[in-house]
């Protein structure tokens, strides 16, 4: 009888330790689940589709069917085998995958545009590395049939102009069904896809083909926007397209001197804003920019490449939005654009993703609390605990 009671007493500390250990595991698991999963739902849930000005003049049923809901993001830069560390890959790709999949589930867009630099090392990738990168991209950016994914080419996908080859361009086009000068029309809205890397204007084979397609598409769009009673022999045999001013989608921004006029929390850092942009490297040349404006007279231009946000007006009336990078490796506060678009109007809203610095702050706070809990459990936070231990040891000696 005495033996059994003493055994029960001895087992109490073990039960307490197991209970405390279980509490620690639950605490750590809760922090991990929140920071690596739930936080994306908490943040993106706050984003709402912007209202189109003309939406108030139509019924709810008509408005919901006539408005195209588009998500625009840029510069995902999936790391490759040359410069990419496995831990960096794991972290960044998990962040982008969770953000993208959460956005699809909560916002349910009709279409998603990625404005180039899908890969970080596409310009160097061997066939095997390219296949592996494409496989990872398809896993991260998988989407339901109800959502269309359109990918634009960037300089990191096929190389800068001096690195670009027909092989690299064809490889990208085969995977993503992309061609420069391609027109996508959805709900009466015209989107023009541009290979801005091929807008160098030096007459290279890829450049000539790309510009020829753009010129032909420009002719179709301009003919489609003419009034029915306007007599023009050049347009008599041209296939008619929806008479909606197009939206240009490309990787390089149109020419601007620098980011000095850009503002906002995700614009370029102050020390970088006044650095002059290099034509055909940071932005398109003045000549190429003017060509695109002349050819298409777009109502909106969406671009990436700079990794920072910017909004500028061309010719005093054509807005261009530079979409910041979607990868936390390039920016502390990534975001994407939510667009409600109709054939005659559009409204844009920026949806910010979790700040990485805040996630790290949560981890640091949780780590400090964890240490305090452990010290308190073992009664190591008692005032003058260490002094008392030293005195007791001294007396024992």
UniProtKB/TrEMBL annotation:
Q: Give all residue intervals belonging to the Calcineurin-like phosphoesterase domain.
A: 69-308
Described by its record, this protein's role is as follows: Metallophosphoesterase that catalyzes the removal of a side-chain ethanolamine-phosphate (EtNP) from the second mannose of the GPI-anchor protein intermediate. Participates in the glycan remodeling steps of GPI-anchor maturation to allow an efficient transport of GPI-anchor proteins from the endoplasmic reticulum to the Golgi.
- Return one GO MF term: metal ion binding
Similarity-based family: Belongs to the metallophosphoesterase superfamily. MPPE1 family.
The UniProt entry's GO biological process terms, in alphabetical order, are: endoplasmic reticulum to Golgi vesicle-mediated transport; GPI anchor biosynthetic process
Show the SUPFAM superfamilies listed in the entry: Metallo-dependent phosphatases
This protein's GO cellular component annotations are: endomembrane system; endoplasmic reticulum-Golgi intermediate compartment membrane
Q: Which cofactor does it need?
A: Mn(2+)
Transmembrane ranges? 20-43, 360-386
| Topology of this chain in the membrane | Multi-pass membrane protein
By its UniProt entry, which Gene3D superfamilies does this protein fall under? 3.60.21.10
- Protein name, as recorded: Metallophosphoesterase 1
Alphabetical keyword list: ER-Golgi transport, GPI-anchor biosynthesis, Hydrolase, Manganese, Membrane, Metal-binding, Transmembrane, Transmembrane helix, Transport
Instruction: Report the locations given in the UniProt record.
Output: Endoplasmic reticulum-Golgi intermediate compartment membrane
């Amino acid at each position: 009888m005495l033996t059994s009671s003493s055994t029960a007493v001895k087992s109490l500390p073990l039960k307490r330790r197991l209970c405390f250990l279980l509490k620690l595991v639950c605490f750590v698991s809760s922090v991990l689940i929140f920071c690596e999963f739930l936080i994306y739902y908490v943040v993106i849930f706050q984003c709402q589709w912007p209202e189109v000005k003309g939406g108030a003049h139509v019924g709810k049923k008509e408005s919901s069917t006539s408005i195209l809901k588009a998500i625009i993001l840029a510069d995902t830069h999936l790391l490759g085998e040359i410069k990419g560390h496995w831990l960096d890959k794991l972290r960044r790709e998990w962040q982008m995958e969770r953000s993208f999949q959460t956005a699809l589930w909560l916002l349910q867009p009709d279409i998603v545009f990625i404005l180039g630099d899908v890969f970080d090392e596409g310009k160097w990738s061997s066939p095997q590395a390219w296949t592996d990168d494409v496989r990872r991209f398809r896993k991260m950016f998988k989407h339901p049939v109800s959502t269309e994914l359109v990918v634009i080419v960037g300089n990191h996908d096929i190389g800068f102009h001096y690195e670009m080859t027909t092989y690299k361009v064809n490889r990208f086009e085969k995977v993503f069904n992309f061609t420069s000068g391609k027109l996508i029309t959805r709900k009466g809205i015209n989107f023009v896809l541009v290979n801005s890397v091929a807008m160098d204007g030096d007459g290279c084979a890829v450049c000539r083909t790309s510009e020829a397609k753009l010129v032909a598409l420009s002719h179709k769009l301009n003919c489609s926007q003419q009034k029915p009673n306007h007599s023009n022999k050049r347009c008599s045999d041209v296939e008619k397209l929806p008479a909606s001013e197009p939206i240009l989608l490309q990787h390089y921004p149109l020419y601007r001197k620098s980011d000095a006029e850009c503002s906002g929390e995700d614009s370029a850092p102050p020390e970088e804003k006044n650095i002059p942009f290099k034509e055909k490297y940071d932005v398109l040349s003045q000549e190429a920019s003017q060509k695109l404006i002349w050819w298409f007279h777009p109502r909106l231009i969406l671009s990436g490449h700079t990794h920072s946000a910017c909004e500028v007006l061309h010719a005093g009336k054509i807005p261009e939005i530079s979409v910041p990078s979607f990868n936390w490796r390039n920016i502390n506060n990534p975001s994407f654009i939510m667009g409600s678009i109709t054939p005659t109007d559009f409204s844009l809203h920026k949806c910010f993703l979790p700040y990485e610095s805040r996630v790290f702050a949560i981890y640091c706070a949780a780590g400090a609390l964890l240490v305090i809990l452990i010290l308190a459990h073992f009664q190591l936070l008692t005032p003058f605990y260490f002094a008392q231990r030293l005195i007791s040891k001294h007396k024992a000696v």
